């Protein structure tokens, strides 16, 4: 996906009704020795980092349970859409663990330190509406009979992104992701570098021409 220029947006959904991702298999984990557990979690953390580093926008469609590593997967995405009936939580402390695939870092950046500490310390599960009220998800929707309401809303969101200039969207994502980690002056410099990469693109010229000619732009990702 990273190197496929035809890919504009990636939507993560589950094929299992009622479950987005239920997290690690603790029965499997119980059979591992300490070294194996450490290696397993390191690989899982690396996977989440790879998802977070995808150059195109990513959307998690949470139509059911997103627990532990399942919520960490959703947090690794840029945007999250949840059904009202979804259940989310970093429940690791209820099993004698702590989040190890990015949850302790991405949740505070998403909802703030105080709420993140409360959710992680208690291992509490919240529904889609609660998640929306605290900014954990971008949208919450009533669940439908097919059980894919969040996925349908995620597709609608993806279709809003699709017509936009691909390189500009990628550079916007890069500027936000890198800039949020530094002071604002450094962030401005990062924005400037990303903007400079977009200036020579044919899509920028097309955007200007379309505006002048009062027509919809036809972006090609070049």
TrEMBL record:
SUPFAM superfamilies in alphabetical order: ClpP/crotonase
Lineage of the species this protein comes from: Eukaryota, Metazoa, Chordata, Craniata, Vertebrata
A biological process term (GO) from this entry: fatty acid beta-oxidation
InterPro entries, alphabetized: ClpP/crotonase-like_dom_sf, Enoyl-CoA_hyd/isom_CS, Enoyl-CoA_hydra/iso, Enoyl-CoA_hydra_C
Listed Pfam families: ECH_1
UniProt keyword list: Lyase
Similarity comment: Belongs to the enoyl-CoA hydratase/isomerase family.
PANTHER family linked: ENOYL-COA HYDRATASE DOMAIN-CONTAINING PROTEIN 2, MITOCHONDRIAL, ENOYL-COA HYDRATASE-RELATED
GO molecular function: enoyl-CoA hydratase activity
The name this protein goes by in its record: ECHD2 protein
Organism superkingdom: Eukaryota
Gene Ontology annotations for the cellular component aspect, listed alphabetically: mitochondrion
């Amino acid at each position: 996906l990273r190197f496929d220029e035809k890919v504009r947006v990636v939507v993560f959904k589950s094929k299992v009704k009622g479950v987005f991702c239920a997290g690690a298999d603790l029965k499997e984990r119980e059979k591992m020795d300490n070294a194996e557990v450490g290696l397993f979690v390191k690989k899982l953390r690396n996977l989440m980092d790879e998802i977070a580093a995808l150059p195109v926008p990513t959307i998690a469609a949470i139509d059911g349970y997103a627990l532990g590593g399942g919520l960490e997967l959703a947090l690794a995405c840029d945007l999250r859409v949840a059904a009202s009936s979804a259940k989310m939580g970093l429940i690791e402390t209820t099993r004698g663990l702590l989040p190890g695939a990015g949850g302790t870092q991405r949740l505070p950046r998403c909802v703030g330190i105080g709420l993140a500490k409360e959710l992680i310390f208690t291992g509490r599960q919240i529904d889609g509406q609660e998640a929306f009220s605290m900014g954990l998800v971008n949208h919450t929707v009533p669940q439908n009979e097919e059980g894919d309401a969040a996925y349908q809303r995620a597709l609608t969101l993806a279709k809003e992104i699709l017509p936009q200039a691909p390189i500009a969207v990628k550079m916007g994502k890069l500027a936000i992701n890198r800039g949020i980690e530094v002071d604002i002056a450094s962030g401005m410099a990062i924005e400037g570098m990303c903007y400079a990469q977009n200036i020579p693109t044919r899509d920028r010229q097309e955007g200007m021409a379309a505006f002048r000619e009062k027509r919809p732009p036809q972006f090609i990702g070049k």
